[in-house]
User: Which sequence fits this backbone?
């Protein structure tokens, strides 16, 4: 996708979030603090007089960070949110049901509360604050959502919830789109045709 963007005449700035890839940092926070990383990169790019419009593309938790940041920066030209979850709490409940089916449902919520407290103590962030579906209601930036029909990590209905919540009035509603792709699961290669939906 980087090569395609470059062939289309766009420059690409790729980044690792804190706590991921080659970047330093002990904890990944599923978008909560990573939105600040995006802000730092955007600030850096805006100081460069060669940079014009800035569009953001995020995948998975990166899409969550992109939504959280983009919803409060109206100067962003557009966003591609590829396989975001709508709510970390909802996703964890769903994952508990899929990966721990023998745990009685009545115990899931208390167990997740214990996990929340542990993460708050150790990593200093609250799982319940990672709610991109709430942030995106304030978003006026053009958005393209991408979900994979076979995604077992972040099921496609999360993208649907985000799409429906995107806060645009009747005049700007055409500026949000959703693509549901059938070519595989969470990390499957995105088809070249998908890029035709993106106008940078």
Assistant:
């Amino acid at each position: 996708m980087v090569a395609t963007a470059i062939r289309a005449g766009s420059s690409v700035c790729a980044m690792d979030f804190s706590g991921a890839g080659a970047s330093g940092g002990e904890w990944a926070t599923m978008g909560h603090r990573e939105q600040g990383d995006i802000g730092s990169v955007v600030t850096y790019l805006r100081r460069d007089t060669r940079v014009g419009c800035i569009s953001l593309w995020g995948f998975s938790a990166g899409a969550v960070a992109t939504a959280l940041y983009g919803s409060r920066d109206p100067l962003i030209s557009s966003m591609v949110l590829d396989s975001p979850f709508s709510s970390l709490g909802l996703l964890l409940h769903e994952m508990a049901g899929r990966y721990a089916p023998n745990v009685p449902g009545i115990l899931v919520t208390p167990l997740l509360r214990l996990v929340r407290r542990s993460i708050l103590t150790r990593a200093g962030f609250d799982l319940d604050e990672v709610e991109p579906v709430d942030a995106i209601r304030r978003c006026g930036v053009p958005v393209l959502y991408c979900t994979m029909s076979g995604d077992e990590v972040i099921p496609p209905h999360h993208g649907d919830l985000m799409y429906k919540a995107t806060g645009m009035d009747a005049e700007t509603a055409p500026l949000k789109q959703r693509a549901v792709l059938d070519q595989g699961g969470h990390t499957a290669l995105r088809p070249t045709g998908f890029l035709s939906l993106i106008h940078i």
Q: What stands out?
A: The beta strands are 55-59, 78-82, 143-148, 176-181. The first strand starts at residue 55 and ends at 59. The chain is about 35% helix and 10% strand.
